[in-house]
Amino acid sequence: MVVVIGGGCTGLGVAWDLILRGVPVTVVEARELGSGTSGRFHGLLHSGGRYAVTDPVSAKQCRQENEVLRRIAPSAVESVGGYFVSVDDGVESYMRDWIAGTQSAGIPVTEVSVETAIRRLPGLNPRVQRAFAVADAVLKGFELLDLLRVNGERRGVTILTETRVTQVQTVNGQVSGISVRTKDGERRIPCDAVVNAAGPWAGQVAQLFGERVQMELSSGLMLIYSNRMVPSVVNRLAPPGDGDIVVPHGRTVILGTTEVPQVDPEPPEPTRESAEYLQSLGQAMFPEMNRWRILRAFVGVRPLFEGNGVVPQSRVSRDFTVVDHGRQGGLQGAFSVMGGKWTTFRLMGERTADVVVEYLHQSSPSISAHTVLEPDAPREKHSASSTICECERVSEAQLLDQMAEPFDNWRTRTWFAMGPCQGTMCAHRAVSLRMQYTDVEGGLDELTNLRRERERGVRPVAWGTNARELALTEALSCQTLAEGVAHDHLR
């Protein structure tokens, strides 16, 4: 039996590949699935074009996995297409290198006329010089995580959330089990191997193996705009930098991103200064972006890894590394997978599983590239039909289907509180519904946590309409609903 530490796309990808080979797997996640980097990205399914010059290995991997994910998870991919547009002077040399790089990586590229690009991409800078169409798409991260969960559990994967690994147990220098801490106390899980797939926390988890792993972490700010102003992905054709990609996602558009080196795996708080800086960069592609209705800001942490730890952040590869610690003189049965990105998660799972099954003396090949992730079976219909969240059209029936799930999963699986009002009009209704139908304690704590989490993303962009909306939220929750007063009274 194998334990995978980390419930993001990498950990679930490793578990999925292993279970398809007949290897029993338990996934252990300290929080909820996708609560780390996997739930904090801009949603791009890469064509490979973004890395055609700087990272040819990743470029080719992205092109290949783009095709695979469209085939095995079609419901989680939106084929919006993408463009690389040149809006800067003095990048002719880079443009030539980019065209050569896409050809070398086998990335399909079609040049379109400037007139065509401006017609297809409303608001595009009229100073655009050249434009190229690529096979970028949108990856619906939370939906794909749920597909991995459902299909994994269907085949026998055990998934433990809110469970923290405290110790890796050994016998004669080999992994024999792990100790975990849950809300119900400590327990031991016997296993033959442990895979560290903890993303930004991989360095901390490696310490449980007695290893020192130097991660090259960086944080990236992203801005969400409340209307789908752009129908396709738009990349700035220039050397990689901040604020050079726009991704349509559902009914919104996401502008990314920045790159700030950091040590802490926890994402930092977004700031107004960084939000204004990012938006100003985005205006190079869409000059009227400052007039778009902004929804919120959020920050993700890239779990980059470079073996020697001395490569500048901007040059760290987006490729990934699988480490067999036993072969390097460390603990037998301990493995780490580090680096990579959402687009290549399945390949990361396959390569990691290859190493693990070899250690377990098994020879079953990977079939994850050809196994379709089937959606969950339709749930029983509830008679309730009232609307809880008007912005995202989430009904009471949808939330009743999720009643046993943690409160934050309601948000990521139904999208409630994710629309323009950011939970102002629906958060208290959802909590009331939960308290009405379950005996779960802490409903008011859940409401407070949701309010704080939503405010964390809104406050850095609280200018214009957003500032008025934030004031309305505070007035409704504190004055009209008396949430703070009621909560303090019950304490």
UniProtKB/TrEMBL annotation:
Which GO terms of the molecular function aspect are on file?
Answer: glycerol-3-phosphate dehydrogenase (quinone) activity
- Does this UniProt record's set of keywords contain Flavoprotein? yes
Per its UniProt record, the required cofactor names are: FAD
**Domain called FAD dependent oxidoreductase: residue spans:** 2-331
GO biological process: what's one of them?
Answer: glycerol-3-phosphate metabolic process
Q: Which UniProt keywords apply?
A: FAD, Flavoprotein, Oxidoreductase
> According to the lineage, what is the superkingdom?
Bacteria
What's the family?
A: Belongs to the FAD-dependent glycerol-3-phosphate dehydrogenase family.
Q: Which PANTHER family match?
A: GLYCEROL-3-PHOSPHATE DEHYDROGENASE, GLYCEROL-3-PHOSPHATE DEHYDROGENASE, MITOCHONDRIAL
- Full protein name: Glycerol 3-phosphate dehydrogenase
Q: Which organism is it from?
A: Sulfobacillus acidophilus
